[in-house]
Design brief:
Distance between the termini: 27 Å
CATH class of the largest domain: Alpha Beta
Largest sheet: 4 strands, antiparallel
Shape: elongated
Number of domains: 2
Low-confidence stretches: none
CATH superfamily of the largest domain: Lrp/AsnC effector binding domain/regulation of amino acid metabolism (RAM) domain
Strand order of the largest sheet: 2-3-1-4
Number of strands: 4
Strand content: 15-25%
Structural class: alpha+beta
């Protein structure tokens, strides 16, 4: 069964994506529904598995993580849990870990205290497989549709 969402559902989700702290009333005013109607739609979207979680986007440098990197990893030995253990050994926090196409391939979105912490992390990755490192320069706002 394919879950169906309508244009109002899409507008609610887009607004919530831009401002996850918005009240049901604020969202309702934007999509011309009551706050209760918005709440009912969000509960339905949660039940359908379309809306999976509400998150907070934290400014990592405030917490001492100044280097943001995307790492593409092709594991030859070990598991992704070994990568998590490596991260615990340096000043690092994994924000997201995605399994991607390709055999034992992953993209890891991580923040490090500084470039030295990233450099300390890389020899451990070398022992697990091959990798590419991409330093995030800026985060850009999502494009408007």
């Amino acid at each position: 069964m394919t879950a169906r969402i309508d244009e109002t559902d899409r507008r609610i989700l887009e607004y919530l994506h831009k401002n996850s702290r918005a009240t049901m009333k604020e969202i309702g005013e934007k999509v011309h529904l009551t706050g209760q109607a918005v709440k009912n739609r969000l509960e339905r979207l949660e039940d359908l598995g379309i809306l999976k979680s509400y998150t907070v986007n934290i400014d990592c440098p405030v917490f001492g993580y100044k280097t943001h990197a995307l790492l593409r990893l092709q594991l030859k030995r070990g598991t992704i849990d070994d990568v998590r253990r490596l991260c615990a050994g340096v000043d690092c926090r994994i924000l997201h870990c995605y399994r991607i196409t390709g055999e034992r391939a992953y993209v890891i979105d991580a923040v490090f205290a500084d470039m030295e912490a990233l450099h300390a992390f890389l020899p451990g990755l070398d022992a697990l497989g091959s990798h590419e490192v991409h330093i995030v320069l800026d985060e850009l706002p999502l494009l408007e549709a």
